[in-house]
Hints:
Strands 3-2-1-4 form a four-stranded antiparallel sheet, with helices on one face. The chain is of the alpha+beta class.
Amino acid sequence: xxxxxxxxxxxxxxxxxxxxxxxxxxxxSSEEEALTNAIDALEVALLTYAADGRDLPSxxxxxxxxxxxxxxxxxxxxxxxxxISAFRESGLTRVELAxxxxxxEGEVRRMLDPYHATKLGSLEAGLKVLGRRLVVTVERAA
Length: 142
């Protein structure tokens, strides 16, 4: 999952903003540092959306007249956000999901915690129970 970001000169550095995620604002002294910080700011903002129970903003693929760059969300964060979203859409309780997964309710609670580092295999199993399939692709780095 990628979100478009605007990289603009800002004094001696670079300011980064996301049209689709206005809470994610960061920068850096160089393009490279700004990109690293942008990835972090984007993930923090998206996890905050999930923690607050808000729907994630949909990433737009282009914006007319604006020069924007795609900023990736890590695979782990993408899987976590997909799991949380699928659970909310399912209408299941944590107890019922735990029963279907054969896990304790406390473990499901941690899986649904945006800030808990859940193993990818657990998220994949959870998504499967929720009628979703995790798909991973590998691309050349830009």
